[in-house]
Amino acid sequence: MSYSPNHSLAKAFAILEALNGAQKGLTASEVAGHTGLPVSTTHRFLQNLGRLGYVVLDPGRKLYTIGFSLTLFGNRRLIIRRIVNRAEPFLHELASQSGLAAYLGYLDGPHAVIEQRALPLRASKGTHAVGARLDAHAHSIGKALLSLLPRAELMRIYDAERLRVHTGRTIGRRDHLLREMADVVVRGYAIDNEELSPGCGVSPAPCSTQKAAQFARSHSRGRGTSLGRTRSARCCRSCSRPAARSWNVSDSR
């Protein structure tokens, strides 16, 4: 197989295709033989793909295999759909109990993506549509998810992305974001304080169900609604119970 000198994408895919066709993995030399690439080039690409999680090296046998990140990449929508189907009854229960919109979402870099929602009978204005991409630092569901990241990963996200300011209450500095993340961890839930749009008040997003937290969170929101600290905590506990049941895990606190 011939490659353009700068055709890095084709080389990477050729390596992945070679590994995908091998049942027990391949050495770097074997990958080079399958692709026609120089061993040094193959080794460099394998290292880069390994750092991204797309290939995995067995150091004992020196064999490379397809990594989990690539498996997830190909099945992402199916996995998300299964999670949504399982969580949907609890979203509706949460919306019914709280009288607010309930959301299921996940973190995608600096954004919280709304994957599903359930609306109460009298839905408030300003509810987010399924598929909406919200600045995570300005929204309770995003802040709940950000609080679960290691500090280094959080800093990596916001080294590349600036903290966009939406209102006078939006977090606009990284040191303020770190302080907010510490508060979220202590409280066990995140709140909105008109950070994304004026008039959208306190709305808890629980982050205490640790085993479920890396992927998605339930979140309640109502325009012009000020829940107050007592009702916020009560609503958050209400959120946590169906969230824990939907993931078949118990609250870790």
Describe what is shown at a glance.
The chain has helices spanning 8-20, 28-35, 39-51, 68-98, 140-146, 151-160, 174-187, 210-213, 228-247; strands at residues 55-58, 63-66, 101-108, 111-118, 133-135, 189-190, 205-206, 217-221. With 253 residues, the chain is an alpha+beta fold. Helix 2 (28-35) packs across helix 3.
Please, could you describe this protein's structure?
By secondary structure, this protein is an alpha+beta fold. The chain has 2 domains: 8-66, Winged helix-like DNA-binding domain superfamily/Winged helix DNA-binding domain (Arc Repressor Mutant, subunit A), CATH 1.10.10.10; 75-247, Beta-Lactamase (2-Layer Sandwich), CATH 3.30.450. It has 9 helices and 8 strands. It has a 4-stranded antiparallel β-sheet. Strands 1-2 form a two-stranded antiparallel ribbon. The radius of gyration is 22 Å and the shape is elongated.
